[in-house]
Task: structure prediction
Amino acid sequence: MKEVILIKDGELSLKGLNRRNFEDKMVSTIRRRLKDLGEIKITRAQSTIYVEPQSEEFDFEEALDRVGYIFGIAAFSRACVCQKNMDDILLKAKTYLISTLSQVKSFKVEAKRADKAFELKSPEICREVGGAILSACPDLKVDVHNPDIVVNVEVRDYAAYIRAGQIKGAGGLPVGTSGRAQVLISGGIDSPVAAWTMAKRGLTLNAIHFASPPYTSARAEQKVKTLLSKVAKYSGTIKLAIVPFTEIQEQIARCCEEDYFTLIMRRMMMRIACRVSEKDECLGLITGESLGQVASQTLPAIAATDEVCSLPVFRPLIGMDKEEIITISRHIDAFETSILPYEDCCTVFTPKHPHTRPKPGQCSQAEKGLDIESLIERAIAGIEYSFIE
Ligand code: ATP
Ligand code: MG
Result:
């Protein structure tokens, strides 16, 4: 039996004139993500995208799995292609749906007829298909108000499709429709969740990570790459910049008052992230900060880091509790990696009594002893780039 994947877009229906662009982006993403599974034909009609495999070898299960990671998709399902006559529709309704229907107690049938010349009207299609299903599965009941599963029949221009139930999609907007931003990624729980949350709103991601060897290890860098690959399953390829941060941290430790170490370090990170963003055409930064979670995430501390930022900083987790963040972390399969105990540069040179309420201007006073410009230049010159899939 020939099958297709039917894909329903979500918020795209709200986008008026931009709709076409959004759909184009989603179709090109679907094409790219399924490319290596075999040839496909993609068509669209009335907010549904049809993915039709063109060969027997096409890995249908793997394709369904991958579609679940594409932002912009509200729901999707596998459907059987029928000839446009009731005999074939009834035959397929009985055979194709049987294994799904054997797992439920009640159902109802909904029919849509794009081809108004079709031999039966929608209510008649529902009645006949319902009858055929009941004759094949006598234990099933029809429940029009609260069915366990909905069987859909759609009669289109060139074919009819039947399916039972649908799978919830990844939601959000197609990646790339909101522009490009740079996530500051650590090996922790929060920043991969922040990256995922913003990619869900249609941002293409770049990533920047600050590494301080020998205080931080190669394993810590590998951990960051693994975390990004979890996000990239949803967002597509991520360009990663690894910035050598050792000299900056050592200079801060040598030249600045201890209570300000973390704040000054975070300001250096932000300055460098803004610089790298300019080169890579990112229009915003993303961090995993959550208000009050640690000393550097109080409102005055966040204000002190924003003082040196020339780009908008997105902090999608700012109002979330750790538990809420962990739920998403598990959902994107990042949690088990995030909790591996490798050190981050934030955990070396930590002050005993970090400043939590810096007043405006205090941080710039405290970092007076640093040659900020040449430190930034040397760090940027030492960046190593890679692409994470
Ligand atoms: P996370 O779980 O994301 O590490 P956290 O709660 O440990 O966050 P901090 O260590 O204060 O918080 O870091 C706050 C944010 O700063 C992180 O969410 C991340 O966006 C960024 N950040 C921290 N360390 C690094 C690093 N080594 N490289 C790049 N960005 C970093
Ligand atoms: Mg951290």
